[in-house]
Specification:
By secondary structure, this protein is mainly β. Helices cover 10% and strands 59% of the residues. The chain is built from one helix and eleven strands. The longest helix has 21 residues.
Length: 206
């Protein structure tokens, strides 16, 4: 709950700041700052859990700010609430079920290239702090206290397609993978648990 409150307050401040810096939304002048808000879904899996498939769906939400160096290049920072993890493929005929929930407060820092003010390509790194976790096997809650790592470093690659005449709305797709392990592996061929996820989001720029 605390992380949601922090993200909300940061978003309100960011929205005001972005409006002050942007001025008239109809102008085409270069602005040092652009702010926005993203909402979407993670489709995630965990390498090392003996399962396969991006079957775990979670929320990805939070504000974003761009620092523009010129009309093409910018650096961006986000403050996200991001739900990751893994789950067995839903099957009514399979009584063996598994779900691992890992919720993170996350701060991605990305380099962005704006191609003709329509496509934004992005790549960079993200720091995540585990704020909530749980595991269920066949519907039974497991004790995983102290098992998972509290900190995660990951890489991100993706892009945003801006739509509409004013280009306030963007469709963002990205791929993210852990650089550091997030827990011990159940697979002896894998050094540790690794988060992998595909994220689809809608972004609104103020």
């Amino acid at each position: 709950m605390r992380i949601i409150i922090v993200i909300t307050l940061f978003s309100l401040n960011l929205g005001l700041s972005a409006q002050i810096n942007a001025g008239d939304p109809d102008d085409n002048e270069f602005h040092l700052f652009d702010g926005g808000f993203s909402l979407g879904a993670n489709f995630s899996q965990v390498d090392g859990d003996a399962l396969a498939g991006f079957n775990k769906i979670g929320i990805n939400v939070g504000p974003i700010i761009h620092i523009n160096f010129n009309p093409n290049w910018s650096a961006s920072m986000e403050l996200l609430y991001s739900q990751k993890g893994a789950r067995s493929k839903p099957d009514p005929n399979n009584v063996n079920t598994f779900i691992l929930v890992m919720d993170y407060a996350e701060v991605p820092i990305l380099a962005n290239y704006n191609d003709k003010n329509r496509l934004i390509f992005q790549a960079g790194f993200s720091y995540g702090r585990l704020v909530n976790s749980r595991e269920k096997i066949n519907g039974i809650e497991q004790n995983i206290e102290g098992v998972l790592e509290n900190d995660e470093l990951s890489y991100i690659v993706g892009g945003t397609f801006l739509v509409g005449e004013k280009k306030h709305i963007g469709v963002n797709l990205r791929y993210q993978g852990s650089i550091t392990k997030v827990g011990p592996s159940a697979n002896p061929k894998v050094v540790g648990l690794i988060n992998r996820l595909v994220t689809a989001r809608a972004t609104y720029y103020f």
